[in-house]
């Protein structure tokens, strides 16, 4: 059974940085996209950053471009999200996810098969 475990969340002041990690365990024969999503209180879950296998195509939502960086370490089966210049509006629970099919590139949460439990990020002004 595949398990994803996020870590690295916390509370920071605006302008600060955090690095989220997502460690995968279990066997995945193949995957199409790895992604970071977030969900703020009272809002829908939204895609933040995606990376596609094969060509390493990367997507960022406009609100994080230039501030966040998604990366992966295949040897460690770990996905990262480096978050710099954090803003109060980045406050949310952050989730990593694995999509097995090509439809996952759209970033629709329903197209992702495995999810972590989430890690809270709180940014104060």
Task: Tell me what the structure shows.
This protein starts with a strand and ends with a strand. Strand 4 (33-39) and strand 5 (46-52) form a beta hairpin. It has no helices and eleven strands. With 125 residues, it is mainly beta. It has strands spanning 3-7, 10-13, 18-25, 33-39, 46-52, 58-60, 68-73, 78-83, 92-99, 114-115, 119-124.
Question: Which helices and strands, and how do they pair?
Answer:
Elements: E1 3-7, E2 10-13, E3 18-25, E4 33-39, E5 46-52, E6 58-60, E7 68-73, E8 78-83, E9 92-99, E10 114-115, E11 119-124
Parallel strand pairs: 2-11
Antiparallel strand pairs: 1-3, 3-8, 4-5, 4-9, 5-6, 7-8, 9-10, 9-11
Task: Offer a concise description of the structure.
This protein is mainly beta. It is built from no helices and 11 strands.
Task: Give structural attributes.
0% helix, mainly beta, seven-stranded mixed β-sheet, 125 residues
Report the principal-axis shape. globular
User: From the alpha-carbon coordinates, what is the Rg to the nearest angstrom?
Assistant: 14 Å
| Main sheet makeup | 7 strands, mixed
Structure classification: mainly beta
* Quaternary organization: single chain
Query: What is the chain-wise order of helices and strands?
Result: EEEEEEEEEEE
**Using DSSP, what is the number of strands?**
11
- Mean pLDDT over all positions: 94
Please work out how many helical segments DSSP would assign: 0
Q: Work out the strand percent.
A: over 45%
The unreliable regions are none
Work out the helicity level: under 10%
Distance between the termini: 40 Å
